[in-house]
Structures are given as structure tokens and as C-alpha cells.
Amino acid sequence: MMSASEDDAATGLHGFRTVEPFGPMRPGNSVATFAIHVAVGDLTAMSTANIDEALHRALFIPGFTGSKEDFLSFFGVLDNDHSDRQQRALVSFSQRGQADSVAPVGTDHYRLTDFVDDGCAVLEALGALDHPIDLVGHSFGGLVARRLAIARPDLVRSVVLFSSGAKPIPAAADVNPVIDVLRQHGSAAVFRGAYPDLEDEPQSDPHTEMVRLRAHASSLDNLLAMADILGRFDDVTDALAASGVPVAVVYGHDDLVWPTEMYDEEAHRLGIEPIVIDHAAHSAQIENPDAFADALTGFWDHVAD
Predict the structure, then answer these.
(1) What is the pLDDT, as a whole number, of residue 84?
(2) Distance between CA atoms of 169 and 110, rounded to whole angstroms?
(3) DSSP 8-state secondary structure symbol assigned to residue 70
(4) Cα–Cα distance between 99 and 148 in angstroms, integer?
(5) What pLDDT does 172 receive?
(6) Is the dihedral of CA 284, 288, 291, 294 positive or negative?
(7) Burial code of 199-237, b = ≥16 C-beta within 10 A, e = fewer?
(8) Which end of the chain is more exposed for a tag (fewer CB within 10 A), N or C?
(9) In this predicted structure, what is the pLDDT of residue 54?
(10) Type and span of the H or E element at 290
(11) How far apart are CA 104 and CA 63, in angstroms?
(12) In what order do the strands lie in the sheet with 156-162?
């Protein structure tokens, strides 16, 4: 068995502490898991093994009820079939309170500004001061990505807003029942919401079991705070446009979380055409990964260095 230092050298993760993968989904030799230290503690992350030598890095930020594992299978699709491995490393991290990342106690530790502060620290740890990073923000992660580009455009090469609305989810009634269920049943309710026909017991399918374990491991304070934010955050589209950071708006044709008209409106305000992924809803990286990978690489190829 390799020592921690030998393992770091093998994966190219110099300066990061390696950690065990979360859940039963095994990343294989092409993806490494590690910790990124921020002010509140350690956030867990994963990356393709070319993280040190790649010309560019892309950072995927997961959404509400999510974690870095949302992109594990997609990294294989994007890395193997759609990109030059020497050109781009792929990285994702679990935000505070998600899965096995640090989880401070109290909803007051999960303000939108806290997630943005963590994101800035992650970007700097990944070398964005010298080589700005391409952001992909999924759903709630898009709220964070917008504000990272506004706050620190020097760290951000581009932003993909992936199934992430510019305004709060339209009806507060869509958010309030979620908060009520979480308060009553705790974080485990996330698994029942995702798989209402399954018992909360070990699952044979690795992805399903990961979702179940994540529901139990994730912070209830995180979930309550994120749900509340999704119902009342500010529209920052004008500030994002003024940042000068290139932006793409990408969403699944059948996405129902935000009205697709809202995605189109933001793209229009940003002066761009939205990219619509056919045969996909809110999680195109799982529902139509090849088309989503094509959308990302097509956008990245047109971003000037």
C-alpha cells in the first residue's frame, strides 16, 4: 500500500491531503479525492489526475442536496471522450454541509456569502490567482458561481450557469413544503424525496446508495438554509454582465425546477443564446452526459485566454 506522500505524488495532488471517497461509487485511478482547507474546515474534493500539468482547470459546484459525487460519472465522459487530457483538469468539491465536507452547526453558518467565501478559497487553493478557472455552477451552485465571478473576476476564466435560475424559484409554495418536510423528518427525507418507492435501507445500485448515504450525512442546517436562500436571493445578472467574465446559460429541455423562460430571459440580458440540452431535465450531466459535455467543450473552446 502506498503512503500518503506516495499517493499524492501518484495522483499529482501536491499540497493537498488525500481522503477516502464518499459512498460506494469508486472513482478509479483516473480520479482522486482530497481535502481543500478553508476557514471553516476541510471541504472534500475530487479531480482528474492531470490537475498539476493541465493548461486549464474547470471547477464544478454542486447544488441543493448535492455533492461532488454528482459529477463523478460525468468526469469520465468528459475526460475520455470530449477533451484533451493535457488541456483541462476537472475538479468538483462538496460545499460546506454536503456529504463528507465540514458541517458547522447552525443555519447562520450557511449564508450565501459563506458559500461564496468558501468558493474563493477553493479557487485560490487550486491556483486561480495564476491561472483563472472555468466555473460550472449547477442549480444552487450557480448562485455561488455568479457571485464568485462578480466578487473575484480575476480568479474566473468563464462561468457556465447550469440549470440555475437568476431569480428565486417563482412560488414560495415550492420551497416552503420542502422546509417543512426537512424540519419534520431531517436530512434523510432527501432520499425519500428522490426515491419515494424505496425503503431507507442499503441499496445494491451504487449511485442510489450514495444518494441514501449522502442524505444521512449531509447537514440539516445546510439543507434548511439552502432551501430558504432558493426562495429569496437577489438577481445579480447586471453585475455579472458588468464583470466581463464570459458566461454560458445551459439547461435541460425538460427542466422544471425553474421555468425555462427564466433561463432564456437571463441569457437575453447577458447578450447570449442559451444552450438547451435535449432529452434532459435538471441534471443533464446524468440524463444526457454526451450532449452536456459537447456544450461545455464548445463553450470553453471559444473563451479567449
Answers:
(1) 60
(2) 19
(3) G
(4) 22
(5) 56
(6) positive
(7) eeeebeeebbbbbbbbbebbbbbbbbbbbbbbbebeebb
(8) N
(9) 87
(10) helix 289-301
(11) 18
(12) 17-18, 31-38, 41-48, 88-93, 56-61, 133-138, 156-162, 247-252, 275-277
Domains of the chain by start residue, with CATH: 4-301 (3.40.50.1820)
**Residue in 154, 143, 29 with CA at minimum distance from that of residue 95:** 143
What is the predicted pLDDT for the residue at 28? 78
| Grid cell of 243 as nine digits | 464583470
From CA 302, how far away is CA 275, in angstroms rounded? 14
Q: Is 205 helix (H, G, I), strand (E, B) or coil?
A: coil
Would you state the cell numbers that stand for residue 45, as one nine-digit string? Answer: 474534493
Question: Mean pLDDT of residues grouped by 10 in the chain (305 residues)?
Answer: 40 78 88 96 95 91 98 90 72 98 98 98 97 98 98 98 95 75 95 96 97 98 96 96 98 96 98 98 98 96 85
| CB within 8 Å of 246: residues ≥ 6 apart | 157, 158, 159, 299, 303, 304
Pure H helices in 170-278: 172-185, 189-194, 206-217, 220-230, 237-243, 260-270
Q: Which three cell numbers mark 18?
A: 488525500
Pairing type for strands 41-48 and 88-93 reads: antiparallel
The whole-number pLDDT of residue 81 equals 63
How many residues comprise the chain?
Answer: 305
Rounded alpha-carbon distances, angstroms, from residue 16 to 33, 44, 291:
10, 10, 32
Among 170, 160, 305, CA closest to 240: 160
Contacts 24+ apart (CB under 8 A), 168-177: 168/230, 168/231, 168/232, 168/233, 169/230, 169/231, 169/257, 169/258, 170/258, 170/259, 170/262, 172/231, 174/231, 175/227, 175/228, 175/230, 175/231, 176/231
Instruction: State how far the Cα of 39 lies from the Cα of 99, in Å rounded to an integer.
Output: 18
Amino acid at position 56, single letter = H
> How far is the C-alpha of 105 from the C-alpha of 172, rounded, in Å?
25
